Amino acid sequence: MDAVMKRNFENLHSENKEEQYEAYQNIIEAIEQEVDWAYVVWDDLVKKLEHKNNHERSRAAQFLCGLAAKSDTDKRILNDFGAVWEVTYDEKFVTARHTLQSIWKIGLGGEQQREVVKEFFANRFKECTNEKNYTLIRFDIIQGLRYLYDETKDNEIKELALRLIDTEEDEKYKKKYAKIWKGIA
């Protein structure tokens, strides 16, 4: 890891909120490509998934999702997926939602990872109706499947999304979810 990237990770804990945000943005941008430092930070990020500070949990989950997409050649995410997924149930809904909105990226890491993401998304979509804000959770799942489809062109993803949408009983939300797939379905 070069000095600039090391500094970005340090600046996540800066007193200056602008420095924190800039560091966060720089890391997010960096992990859009393959990086050679993924495993330098991996274990620390996994530990931070249970940090007392929700910002730490959120960033750790988002960074792991991004690293799993392009830089996880050892497929470590398959062992750590459960810990990342747990953050989608975080007590702070914004933390849970940021994680849920990022988790689709794990599916870019390979076929095994894609299958795990599809399975967990499908189960959550079916089981989340007793959760607060379940319509937002369902929206994020359908949107995540769309992003994953756009990147992979895997028709099984499209078919899964359309089946899930079809199970929605409320016409208002069924239309809202279907709109995400407009032009594809």
Write up what this structure looks like:
- It is a single chain.
- The protein is mostly helical and 185 residues long.
- It has one domain: Leucine-rich Repeat Variant.
- Helix content is 70%, strand content 0%.
- It is built from 10 helices and no strands.
- Helix 6 (93-102) packs parallel to helix 8 (134-152), helix 7 runs antiparallel to helix 8 and helix 8 runs antiparallel to helix 9 (155-167).
- The model has no long low-confidence stretch (mean pLDDT 95).
Rough outline: globular
Mean of pLDDT: 95
Q: What count of domains describes the coordinates?
A: 1
| Unreliable parts | none
Please state the structural category: mainly alpha
Supply the CATH class.
Mainly Alpha
Order of helices and strands: HHHHHHHHHH
- How much helix, percentage-wise, in residues? over 70%
- N/C terminus separation: 43 Å
InterPro entries: ARM-type_fold (IPR016024)
Concise account of the structure shown:
InterPro entries: ARM-type_fold (IPR016024). The chain is mainly alpha-helical and 185 residues long.
Q: How are the secondary structure elements laid out?
A:
Blueprint: H1 3-11, H2 17-30, H3 38-48, H4 54-70, H5 77-86, H6 93-102, H7 111-127, H8 134-152, H9 155-167, H10 171-180
Give structural attributes.
185 residues, mainly alpha, Leucine-rich Repeat Variant, 70% helix, ARM-type_fold
